[in-house]
Design a protein that fits this description.
Length: 447
């Protein structure tokens, strides 16, 4: 079988769970089909369950794909294709591939003797469905018991992310693949995927890049952000330019740092830092910055939340967040650039939207694709009824609640408004507010 290079490890893997998320055209479903057929042909006393959430989708999806691969491998004379129940039998050893829907999970209880399972489009399932399916694979057997899960990562809220991707487990192999891993796609399909972002950047993330998506409602705060327009792969740090590090201070999820450089009026966001407990504090974030940029010699400017100038329970007596930063980063001889007070959320956000929309005051923004938390803030942070930030909450494993979005966003805005203060003042005082005018016209036309 011609197995794509990206799947070689998964083809040979003996791990219990092989979980593959990816974009369209990445070949993940074909690969699992190849693995299943290889096992059915080479092992004895093996039945494999192939399951979709909805039974009516089975015939034209997984069942047809299994047939296609079998015919492609010229093995069709060795198989019986049963159209009454969409099962497939390998004649030489009697092994079966059973394709079913899980509309009623209780129906699965009547299926016995299952050695391995493939859950296609696994995001359609509930976690309770998975638990029921795992129960179907039991009993002594010489065969390897494996679970194959394939899906497009349509929502970061999926239980699959937390269960398989957010932790390390020696019994789990995870992969993320895209159309770029499949050299057999036709040119027109590749062009379609690459142009997807022009229509919907969330779809582009999911179906072209294989990245976790989120439900977008049109109520996002940063409405003019476009992934394909503003995000660039592998932007490199330029040692000949000054660094601009901006801090947002929170106990949870932790201190957030956004790191940028400026060429004329082009802002290049190159990096971000947000460490997990117990290193989610200002001192550790500063030390991580020092580790990453220890050889930098061309200037460092520090920005951030103006409330960090106050003493807090997180800092020693007589110190605040910025005295800690300046102490830890003293080798750079940093310059502190702080706003007198934090800017208006609505006005600051309108300023950002106008820059993203059409480079107001000739300011432009490029973001390195590694800045995932900042990108998520821009993509998924919601707007409140008053035009400010709608605060959504998430929880740590211990149950502690924290604000899900806007930490990197806030850090960036402190830097943006301080660095381009004259342009921002002009914007505030009526020197042209096209985004604000667009919002007013939109509201006017809605009546």
């Amino acid at each position: 079988m011609n197995i794509l290079k990206v799947y070689k490890e998964a083809f040979l893997s003996k791990k219990r769970y092989i979980v593959i998320k990816g974009g369209s055209g990445s070949g993940k479903s074909v690969f699992i089909t190849q693995k299943i057929i290889s096992r059915i042909v080479s092992e004895k006393n093996l039945n494999i369950l192939v399951i979709r959430k909805v039974a009516s989708t089975v015939k034209n999806s997984v069942y047809q794909l299994l047939k296609d691969v079998i015919y492609n491998e010229k093995l069709e004379d060795n198989f019986i294709f049963n159209r009454s129940d969409y099962s497939i039998i390998y004649i030489p050893n009697g092994n079966r591939i059973i394709t079913v829907g899980a509309d009623d999970v209780n129906k699965l209880k009547s299926i016995a003797g299952i050695g391995s399972v493939w859950m296609e489009e696994a995001t359609e399932f509930l976690e309770s469905d998975l638990e029921q399916i795992i129960l179907r694979v039991r009993g002594k057997s010489d065969n390897l018991k494996q679970f194959y899960l394939t899906f497009n990562p349509v929502s970061e809220e999926s239980f699959l992310k937390k269960r398989f991707f957010d932790k390390t487990d020696d019994d789990i192999l995870t992969l993320t693949t895209t159309y770029k891993d499949n050299p057999f796609l036709d040119k027109e399909y590749v062009e379609h995927l690459e142009n997807l972002g022009k229509k919907n950047h969330n779809f582009y993330r999911i179906y072209s890049l294989g990245l976790w998506g989120a439900l977008q409602t049109g109520g996002e705060l940063v409405k003019e952000f476009n992934y394909t327009k503003h995000v660039f792969n592998n932007i490199l740090y330029n040692p000949d330019l000054a660094l601009h590090a901006s801090f947002d201070f929170n106990v949870l999820p932790g201190v957030s740092v956004i790191i940028s450089q400026i060429i004329n009026k082009e802002i290049i966001v190159i990096d971000e830092i947000q460490l997990i407990h117990p290193n989610n504090n200002t001192r550790c974030a500063s030390q991580e910055f020092l580790r990453r940029y220890s050889n930098h010699t061309n200037g460092l400017f520090i920005y951030g939340d103006s409330s960090g100038k106050n003493e807090s329970s997180r800092s020693e007596a007589g110190h605040n967040e910025y005295t800690i930063i300046m102490k830890e980063l003293h080798k750079f001889r940093p310059t502190l650039r702080l706003l007198t007070k934090n800017p208006s959320v609505v006005m600051g956000n309108n300023f950002l939207n106008d820059i993203l929309s059409h480079n107001i005051e000739d300011i432009s923004i490029k973001i390195n694709n590694i800045c995932k938390k900042f990108i998520d803030d821009l993509l998924y942070g919601k707007e409140a009824a008053d035009g400010g930030k709608f605060i959504e909450y998430a929880k740590t494993e211990s149950g502690a609640k924290y604000e899900k979005y806007f930490h990197m966003y806030d850090a960036f805005k402190y830097f943006l408004i301080k660095s381009f203060s004259s342009e921002y003042i002009k914007y505030q005082t009526g020197g042209g507010k096209p985004y604000l005018n667009k919002i007013r016209n939109r509201n006017k036309n809605s009546y």
